[in-house]
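Supplementary Note 3. Input sequence used for the single-chain structure prediction.
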Amino acid sequence: MLGIRLKFLNKAEFEITHTLSNLLLLLNRQVCRSHSVDYAVNITKVILHKKECTQIGSAIYKFVFIVALLTAPQVWATETPQEDDFVMHHVEDAHEWHFATIGRTRITLPLPVIIYAPGDGLQIFSSSRFKDENHQYVPYNGYIINDHGKIVALDQEQVLYDLSLTKNIAAMLVSVLILLAIFLRAAQNYKRKPQATPRGFWALLELLICFVRDEIAIPNLGKSAYKRFMPYLLSMFFFIWLNNLLGLLPGAANVTGNISITLVLALFTFVMTNFNGNKQYWAHVLRAPGVPRWLVPIMFPVELLGLFTKPFALMIRLFANITSGHIILLSIIGLIFILKSTWVGLISVPFGAFMFLLKLLVAFLQAYIFTLLSAIYLGAAVDSHEEAVNT
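The predicted structure, written as discrete structure tokens, is reproduced below.
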């Protein structure tokens, strides 16, 4: 059938068909797969030298090049060596801020290392001292960064206190500066024009503030007590939400996915709740009303344990949701390099884009849930829940 068909082709069409047949035969046999792009370019250049098929050959040249590009995944997969632990590398904290790697060039920002040792005193230097020209860790001044990213002394008996500015701390400070700039500017706008209607970004900011007030603070704290805790609730909501969003940017830090930071945030709620607890709150903890006396020795440890399980739940929920989202997204994209095939990108890239959009929603939800639970715990401590329900 093919032989009969070729009889009706002119010389240009025959050369094009013959070229495509040879190319596809080569690709199907997977001969010299890593050089299929070069083969496609060379064989189609022969067509372009024929005057009879200059226009047709130009179009076929582009088509053949795209086909060869898609069927030669190893060229892209082996061009740059990938780190075996690239997922954890992006999730964990570090003593340098790695933004990107272009070819063999690493774009990083060395961060200050601050170490205090009883015998050596205070030492401050750049984290770049711990790496050589091949980006391998080397000792400096008797210290080195181990496989877990921690600074340790070469002398195992030496005690040191690491006060270094890590990537997560630097990113957290950046987010704090952004929030200060936004809210100080918003306060100036309200002072300058208190009756003016905000527009654009400032209208969105006012909408979010009213959302925290009307949907979180007042229903759980009551109208008589919500103003005391509004600064704290707003700080928690915007700090967590902003760091969740910044963590989705390429080269950004995983601030809210660090359990140390979520622990501190949960401790803030724990301290605020227990220091503002009234007599009824502590009476319920020490001896719940309506409980028989013989149950008091059993209920007291349960109530006491409940004081610590609440912040523990806040800590784990935020940490687990943010970290798992980063790991899933990086694993999906990493399948392209693990399997060394660009064909996997046809599935990984759309699914990764979907996961990215889902993480935008999760970023807001986790900030909302953390703030809501904090308001519920504070409301139970100030005993204003009944008032909030009645209003």
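The first strand starts at residue 96 and ends at 102. The chain has 14 helices and seven strands.
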